[in-house]
């Protein structure tokens, strides 16, 4: 439903920020050829994982983050 709500769509659009740049630079340094697309995917996955834990309780383990990073590097 969020894509049909202009206010939510505006909030959910990925924004350029320092964290995203760090991820993009890291992926590019690791030789990822489509670093921009992988950055969007990785940041979205991490955001989703953190959001899930905020809503459902618990914490995000470093192992979970490493798994997402490893997937982005493939």
UniProtKB/TrEMBL annotation:
What are the residue boundaries of the Tetracyclin repressor-like C-terminal group domain, all occurrences included? 4-73
Show the InterPro entries listed in the entry: Tet_transcr_reg_TetR-rel_C_sf, TetR_C_31
Q: Which SUPFAM superfamilies match?
A: Tetracyclin repressor-like, C-terminal domain
Superkingdom in the source lineage: Bacteria
Q: Which Pfam families match?
A: TetR_C_31 (PF17940)
**Gene3D superfamilies per the record?**
Tetracycline Repressor, domain 2 (1.10.357.10)
Report the protein name in the record.
Tetracyclin repressor-like C-terminal group 31 domain-containing protein
Q: Which organism is it from?
A: Streptomyces flaveus
């Amino acid at each position: 439903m969020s894509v049909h709500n202009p206010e939510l769509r505006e909030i959910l659009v990925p924004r350029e920020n320092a964290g995203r740049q760090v991820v993009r630079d890291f992926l590019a340094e690791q030789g990822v050829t489509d670093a921009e697309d992988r950055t969007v995917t990785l940041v979205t996955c991490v955001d989703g994982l953190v959001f899930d834990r905020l809503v459902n309780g618990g914490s995000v383990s470093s192992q979970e983050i490493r798994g997402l990073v490893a997937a982005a590097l493939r």
